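Example record used in the benchmark description.
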Amino acid sequence: MRTGLARNSFELILLVSLLLLSGCAQQVAPTGGLADEEPPKILESSPLNESTNFEGSSIELEFDEFVQLRDASSKLIVSPPLEEPVVFTLRGKKVTVEWTDTLDDNTTYMFQFGEGIVDLHESNPLDSNIFVFSTGPYLDSMELKGVVKNALDLNPAEGVWVMLYDQNIDSLPLTELPRYFAKTNKQGIYHLKYLRPGDYKIFALQSEGQGYTYDKPEELIAFEDQLVSAVEPGLINPLDSGEFVGPSMLLFQEVDSTQYVDEYLLSENKVLILKMNMPVEELTLTDLTGNDISSWVKEWGQNKDSVAFWFDSVMVADSLYLRLETDQGFIDTLNIRKRSSSKGKFKKKAKGLGLAVSGQGRQDFFKPLTIKASEPVADLMPEHWILRLDSDTLDITGLVTTDFKTITLDFPWQQESTYQLLIPDSTIYGKYGKTNDTLKYSYTVTSREDYGQMTFNLDFQGYSEGLVWQLYLGEKLKDERVVRTKASIRYDYLKPGKYQIRAIFDTNGNGAWDTGNYKSKLQPEKVIYYEELIEVRSNWEEEIEWQYLFQKTN
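Model output (structure tokens):
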């Protein structure tokens, strides 16, 4: 009896334990294990990588794991290029690459698979995505390396095709495929390998789509004026050395010389806004129905590629039929229909005149207060405005002026003081009858100690034309001016922050940066940056010497 009871007790305990373990197991989600970060590797290939005297029309690759094809044909780069598409076939762990082109004799071919072949589960690309063979008795081994930068901001140009041609013909990037090409990495660095010895014409192209020819105006291009020579591998500097055997090319977009109206907008039937595809110096409108529109007020955009025409009064006619002409000889006609309104008839003194006050609650002590109206100002009554400092009401008689849409209050501000401005209802009238709602604005005036001072002493040698000088705070342009190459530039009131200086070598003297043109063999105007950011602090002053020796080549 004791033995049976013990056996029964043991079985009961075992059953309870199993149930508890089962319950616990059901509450824990499987982790799935560590992610596979190992890329697939080629175990065998036919032919072997870097084979010579190759005569086939396909490559067979066997991997150490199952792989998948990810748009492999479009991601494949073959150099020199093949005319017909390459076909990929996947069977288990084997990939076959086939082509129908007849390969050139005594030529080294390089296949770059990119991310077209990846492993099955984690999509890791090949550990080495380059496969090379030669149809002759040896592999070409010359190389070329350099960097591509954007011409204006000098940032690295990533994902740009760098192309070599073994002919020196001007039409090459327009009509012919390159013999060798590679893409730049995140640092803008290109590295062309397995090159045949010789001199080459070199281009960089940020193409639209998969094309390798320069055939769209929106594409970006860079080119070298002279032929470049491939070099021995031992002469190539490491990628991280900062020095390159190949040229440093500047990528730019040509100006579309065909002027046109990009878009136009009729706003509230009182202003016509025209957007051009490139800047213009002069633009005139003529009403083809015989109406006199000479009194329309013209308002240019910042870059002179847009202009607004403010009408004398709200548009009454159903449409406008206008002739547009620019100083560049461009002529067009515009037929613009009146925009319908669901707000009923226009009321001469309808509320809704928008006002935007400068400063956002903080007023520079050395500047006037400005107020931007949403439409041209016809009249204002500043005698009804109230400006207070603490409990004192201040006299602003004669200190308020208006210029088109800008209202200026030029007051001798007291530093480190807080002001309140009250603009009562209906004391500012817009050109089309709108008036303002009551505006209450409180702001604090800065002091001299809130700003930093900086002086730049320039000495640019080897260049006699003017410089376009630009001061940036972050991405915002704070100052732009044309200066000589030997000059002193001083800033008395800079807000604290990290500033950057850019200088443009204005070779044509138009006060702006100009892009290049390949057909005219014109490189973009040279741009340089001061070597480091300049940190401006409150109540701080610094004098900086900047010497530079200009060299015409990039």
